[in-house]
């Protein structure tokens, strides 16, 4: 299907005049056509043709993480590429769904547009919401109402924890569980109370280690500590996943600096003592303070 030349949503900016190898502009219609050709049973790509929802799902998750990584690194060129990869995942799943007679990409777009309009009555309707905090509350109310409709005539007792995906990353799942429980009153009023809980969990880990507890017991106690740390992040309006990702990047940056300094002295980390590396870590940390 050729792109509509009357489309007003053409790219702008430094890549506005770029064209695909076949002379097309590169809008969403082109991407849908590319995917259709890749999946064409007669002339498509053998690998793309044999993929299923299940085999593509891990790539979808991976691409989402790569988007987050580009954002954390502040790499806008990488972000452009990674957003394209993530968009391709949506198009891929929609194409497979269309082939199976479930829905089309246009249905996906229509559904998300309707959802955004429905959940923003202060923008698309007459409701008045003055702050982002009020909007967050209303957003969750809309989601709860939608979940209730989905449950319909189900005999199961409705739960505030319904419909939290079982395969969410553990940090995000913990955060969602806590938010849902908090909305119905199961939450500490203040962050400092979560700090008390963290100290309690650390004490229990120390007790388990002193008693030479087995791996299962330690895993249970460490899980409790991690859950409490996620709760502290939530109570202080910090995304725990992004916070940990930032720390991971910081550790990588400083450790690479250690490797560079050791290499200048003709050593590798394996040849250095822990004391040497700790001193270089402190140096790398101090260097960052001067930037």
Question: What's the structural blueprint in terms of helices and strands?
Answer:
Layout: H1 28-38, H2 46-50, H3 53-73, H4 76-99, H5 105-118, H6 121-124, H7 132-151, H8 170-183, H9 191-210, H10 215-235, H11 240-264, H12 274-289
Helix pairs in contact: 1-4, 3-4, 3-11, 8-10, 9-10, 11-12
Number of discrete domains? 3
Low-confidence stretches: 1-11
Radius of gyration: 25 Å
Summarize the amount of helix as a percent range.
Answer: 55-70%
Q: What is CATH's topology name of the largest domain?
A: Helix Hairpins
Q: Tell me about the largest β-sheet.
A: none
How far apart the termini lie comes to 53 Å
Strand content: under 5%
CATH architecture title of the largest domain: Orthogonal Bundle
Averaged pLDDT, please? 88
> Which term fits the overall shape?
globular
Strand tally is 0
CATH class of the largest domain: Mainly Alpha
Provide a count of the helices: 12
Structure description:
With 291 residues, the protein is an all-alpha fold. It has helices spanning 28-38, 46-50, 53-73, 76-99, 105-118, 121-124, 132-151, 170-183, 191-210, 215-235, 240-264, 274-289.
């Amino acid at each position: 299907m050729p792109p509509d030349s009357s489309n007003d949503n053409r790219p702008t900016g430094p890549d506005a005049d770029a064209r695909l190898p076949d002379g097309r502009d590169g809008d969403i219609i082109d991407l849908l056509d590319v995917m259709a050709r890749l999946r064409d049973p007669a002339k498509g790509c053998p690998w793309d043709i044999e993929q299923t929802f299940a085999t593509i799902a891990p790539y979808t998750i991976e691409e989402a993480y790569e988007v987050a990584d580009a954002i954390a690194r502040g790499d806008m060129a990488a972000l452009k590429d990674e957003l394209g990869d993530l968009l391709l995942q949506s198009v891929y799943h929609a194409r497979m769904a269309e082939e199976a007679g479930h829905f089309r990409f246009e249905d996906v777009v229509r559904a998300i547009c309707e959802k955004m309009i429905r959940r923003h009555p202060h923008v698309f309707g007459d409701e008045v919401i003055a702050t982002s905090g009020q909007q967050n509350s209303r957003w969750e109310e809309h989601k709860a109402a939608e979940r209730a409709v989905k449950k319909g005539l189900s005999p199961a007792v409705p739960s505030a924890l319904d419909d939290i995906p079982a395969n969410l990353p553990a940090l995000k799942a913990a955060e969602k569980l806590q938010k849902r429980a908090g909305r119905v009153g199961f939450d500490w009023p203040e962050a400092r109370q979560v700090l008390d809980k963290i100290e309690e969990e650390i004490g229990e880990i120390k007790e388990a280690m002193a008693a030479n507890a087995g791996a299962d017991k330690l895993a249970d106690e460490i899980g409790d500590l991690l859950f409490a740390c996620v709760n502290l992040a939530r109570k202080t309006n910090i995304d725990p996943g992004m916070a940990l990702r930032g720390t991971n990047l910081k550790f990588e940056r400083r450790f690479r600096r250690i490797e560079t300094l050791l290499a200048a002295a003709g050593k590798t980390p394996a040849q250095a003592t822990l004391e040497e590396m700790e001193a270089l870590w402190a140096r790398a940390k101090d260097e960052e303070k001067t930037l």
